[in-house]
Amino acid sequence: KLGIEASKETDFSKWYQQVVVRSDMLDYYDVSGCYIVRPTAYFVWQQIQEFFDAGIRALGVRNCYFPMFVSQRALEQEKDHIEGFAPEVAWVTKAGTTDLAVPLAIRPTSETVMYPYFAKWIRSHRDLPLKINQWCSVVRWEFKNPQPFLRTREFLWQEGHCAYMTKDEAYTEVLDILTLYRRIYEELLAVPVIEGVKSEKEKFAGGVATTTVESFIPATGRGIQGGTSHYLGQNFSKMFDVVVEDPEGTSTDRPKIHVHQTSWGLSTRTIGVMVMIHGDDKGLVLPPRVAETQVIIVPCGLTSKHTDEDRRRVTDACLTVEARLKKVGIRADSDLRDNYTPGFKYSHWEVRGVPLRLEIGPKDLEKQSVLSVRRDNFAKASVALDKLESTLEILLHTIQDDMLIRARKAFDERVKLVLKWDDFVPTLNSKCLTMIPWCEREECEDQIKARSTRDAINDEAEDEKEPSMGAKSLCLPHNQPQDPPIIPGQTKCVQCGHNAKRYALFGRSY
Ligand SMILES: O=C1CCCN[C@@H]1CCCn1cnc2ccccc2c1=O
């Protein structure tokens, strides 16, 4: 199967599966919930790694690697909040035919792997701050239906774990990392996100505060968490006894201080979000910044009446253009396969999301120009060969910028300010997110989830396939809407009528 047959608008989940497979980004694997990350997608992940590694190196974070196995005892040391996650933990119980004396968990995240060693390595305040990160895969044996890149039983991610003397240093870093996450989405993937803090119900239970970048899939009207950066406070340092003596203490009385910790993670879910937002009914659309092939050069216009000499001149022109572009750092390739027509090649590279195509034929050689075709909006433009490099550099940056601008417009126009409850569910059903003055009470969030599920089923639009799930809070945006302002003690929560504290983004989500 070559092209995409499902429509993004009317059969999104089938469309998405076809795009990720037929663009050669991913393949299904023998084990349910597991997928093969193929080179086109892995190149995107590598661009993210390079950008993020440079960013955290500048923050003084060093990369390392911890074992993937966690003993039962270690894992259960944080049992208070882990019981919610316990069903997802995969265990190794045998080696060959021999049962292991102690079953070993495969890390679902590495707090319990790392923090016993934080306790060992951090003794004095001079050992602080400790800032480490690891790139690895984690396993979470989820039973909800898997989705390529978005929900997989093993996924690639980075997890950062840091320890500080004070809360201020820790929280400053939490926000610095969140900025890097936003930049990865906006500057590399051309995906707009909203930065904010999670509600008490939605935050990581082991921490004090979870900050997040939230994205949105217009085609389904659902929000999606893009990456999280947690301020853990002293919860884990009390659990694992990570202490330093108080530097301000006297020589006799030196109280022990539990360190202030952070942890932050971003996964290959980023790739799925990029596909969902930019893809169209012809297939993948890659932002040039993360495209392994940015320009594909295709010979055309050669018919049976052309001579072998004509053919050779066109082929040489393609190779010359390719070499000139490579020389200025543009990732260009030529498709000189002689067993496919130009039209076949155009579709082949469109489904694979190559941002720019150059068509070169005998007429172009006469005019000393080539025809460029953009993948994102199919705009065509003739490019003079003597201005090739500068024109294409500008064109690739324009494509990158336009993709973000279009995606941000699609996001912004589907975030609706909702000031009265009657508009809440209809807004969700119109594939939008709601921004509401909210009291931030957990029981109110539970009521919103219940009411937005029940009402949705009552006046359920028949076009919804699965029973429409309730709304959850996605985040309390750092950038709060100013109009109308929330007047403390006066503005009421849209759902429960208590005093509203801040605006909150609510919606259906992945
Ligand atoms: O988000 C992050 C960022 C990276 C480091 N870890 C934190 C928190 C992970 C929360 N979590 C998520 N799934 C789990 C699944 C099984 C066991 C434990 C967990 C678990 O603790």
Describe this structure in words.
By secondary structure, the chain is an alpha+beta fold. Helices cover 34% and strands 25% of the residues. α2 (39-58) runs antiparallel to α6. The radius of gyration is 26 Å and the shape is globular.
What's the end-to-end separation, in Å? 28 Å
Secondary structure tally, helices: 14
Largest β-sheet summary: 11 strands, mixed
Shape: globular
Sheet with most strands: strand arrangement: 3-7-8-14-11-10-9-22-23-21-20
Q: Give the cofactors and ligands.
A: the ligand O=C1CCCN[C@@H]1CCCn1cnc2ccccc2c1=O
Give me the oligomer status.
Answer: single chain
Mean pLDDT, to the nearest integer, reads: 95
- Low-pLDDT residue intervals, each spanning 5 or more residues: 455-465
* Amount of helix: 25-40%
Question: How much β-strand is present in the residues?
Answer: 25-35%
What's the gyration radius in Å?
A: 26 Å
Number of strands: 23
Secondary-structure-based class equals alpha+beta
